Amino acid sequence: MGKRDGKPRGRMSAYAYFVQIHREEHKKKHPNQNVVFAEFSKQCAERWKSMSDKEKQRFHQLAEKDKKRYDGEMASYKPPKGEKGGRKKKRQKDPNAPKRALSAFFWFCNDERPRVKSVMPDSSVGDIAKELGRRWNAVSAANKSKYEALAAKDKARYEKEMNAYKSKKGKAPAKAAAKGRKVEEDSDDDDDDDDDDDDD
Fold first, then answer.
1. Bridging pattern class, strands 87-88 and 83-84
2. What would the 3-class secondary structure string for 30-47 be?
3. What angle do CA 129, 134, 135 make, to 5 degrees?
4. Residue 175: helix, strand or coil by DSSP?
5. Which one of 45, 51, 125, 178 has the minimum C-beta count within 10 Å?
6. How much of the chain is helix, strand and coil, in % rounded to 5?
7. Mean pLDDT, range 62-67, rounded to an integer
């Protein structure tokens, strides 16, 4: 992406250099062979693990050189307005917006997570999520329907709140604009009455 907005290209790790070079060598040896990326990545990871520090050294040197290039370019890079440190600003979430509806699976997770944590106290968030997914797949249709009912109810709540939120959001600026116009133009503008309702 970098060059379009003048932002320096991101720096590469030693492993990324290894994969890139390994791929180029593979292409030279087998020019007509299609590379299955998932399989190729797996091979690279296994090869990298079995390499000695001495074998990895040249890739670390390339990464170090690229780091210096990147740091140097970033020092003189000025991000466009609206971006912090070259990253686009995340759109601010309106704190007044309704809370999104939860799916049946999330309702199930809310119930089941404490139980999973109690039997897997040292597990990572990812492992707990996997276990929750496994348990959800094993839940009977009768039990699932309980969570699906909660999800349906929550969806209805979200849609109702969202409609109210949108109409409130759409009307406030329209009313202010209409008031301002009435003061300026007196009453010979036909659109005054419509502005309160239509500006959504």
1. antiparallel
2. CCCCCCCHHHHHHHHHHH
3. 95
4. helix
5. 125
6. 70, 0, 30
7. 90
